[in-house]
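Re-running the complex after MR caught last week's input typo. The corrected sequence lines follow. Everything else is unchanged.
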Amino acid sequence: MTVSPPSTGTTGPSSGASASSSGAAGPSSGAAMASPGTTAPASGSRAAGSASGAAGPGSETPTPSSGSSAPASESSTPRAGAAAPTDRPDIVDLYLKHIGSGRAVMGRVMGGMAEVRSEGVWIHADDGRRFLDFGGYGVFIMGHRHPAVVEAVHRQIDTHPLASRVFLEPVAARAAQALAAHTPPGLDYVHFVNSGAEATEAALKLARAHGLTSVITTRGGFHGKTLGALSVTANATYQTPFQPLLPDVTQVAYDDPADLEQALAARRDRACVIVEPVQGEGGVRIPRHGYLSQVRALCRAYGALLVVDEIQTGMGRLGTWWGVDAEGVRPDVLLVGKGLSGGVVPVAAMAATAEAYAPFSRDPYLHTSTFGASPIACAAALATVRAMEEEDTVARAAALGLRILTAVRAVCAPYEGGLVREVRGRGLLIGIEFAEEQAVGELLLELISRGVLVNNSLNSTRVLRLTPPAVVEDSALDLFLTTLGAALRSTADRMTS
Ligand SMILES: Cc1ncc(COP(=O)(O)O)c(C=O)c1O
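Corrected-run output:
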């Protein structure tokens, strides 16, 4: 397949294909990256592997047990994928017929593999190859299928996976208690939901329940794609097709307390402010130290409700339980997701102070969902928090993050000032900013072809994002760094030739 440059206006790693007419794209966006007619079959794409190939039978990369980390990655499961490679065209066909042409084509561009199994830092494809997962959109801080979480979820399935919602649910109560033991002081109330966007929705509705109808969000901010959450996700590509969104949403500059103050002062009503401690999808934007404290002080001064979205940054991702911990800031509402899953069951949560939570506390029917706080999801959340305590995940993330950041900087150093603009990160959230957005797609596909998965940034087209698990062992890290070096060389050659 010929790799054409990305068309401007796409938001995904579009170098691997021409952009769709919709223009919106990205692995997690679900939008089309290319139209079916414009791409070659998987076997012709760079990400299909072959020569330089992803790790698989006969490859020189380590086996799962040697290359990944204990305890999450050690598995006695056989390596072969569940589906034979010959099933692949069928899967693409099923995607084309029943899920969507854009996703089908994107799958082809990424190499056409279907993922069938995972453990620890590894994802296994149907053709027997395996991929080191340094992406996962920030979900896998504990790796895939953390054994303690898998065990807890199995137990829950065998006893009581879904609740009547009539009686009390002990596992929901224990999970809330376990999470609240780590939230900033005073954020003792927890409302479990099924996704990050639902956590944002819960916070926006909680603000409304307090009579706060206006919301202030930050440029580059990402808070999900359901209609309310999308209203505060500052990305015109995703917003425009769905206008009108929530009214009274103001975007202010990130890391700019003066702009926030101006927006707060301009309002006659009280507002809800939503902010990330580090903008993940915004391209790993790290604000100056003191920004969050200033945001806190401004919200207090103007009577605004402060919602801190830690869906990506929380659960140890930044080397602290929460990004706000770095400044000792206590928000009114904290959003949690991704890592809370333990890499096993989708679950997210909104934590809040008693005062902020009061409307939901008083009326348990005010904001509900049939599957919210299900025993199975809460079993995963509870086991995840306990495993993090037992394995000291937060400290591991801090130490490992520093090592990875230093090493990635060294690998990128020869390209700084040219291909690479900056490498930045905190904990296990690391961004490589390129001079041109084309490099993101090129490098992403180069890495896939060599057996490594990373992510683009949905709100920042020039930034490649690394969100490795805290369970990466030395051998897997070495493999990653060597692969990154080779992929960078190849990308630089391609882009300068
Ligand atoms: C900061 C932040 N908030 C909200 C979300 C939305 O979460 P979900 O995709 O689970 O709906 C994301 C997802 O990437 C995120 O990074």
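None of the earlier attempt is carried over here. DSSP finds 15 helices and 15 strands in the chain. Residues 137, 195-197, 200, 222-224, 276, 280-281, 309, 311-312, 337 surround pyridoxal-5'-phosphate (CB under 6 Å).
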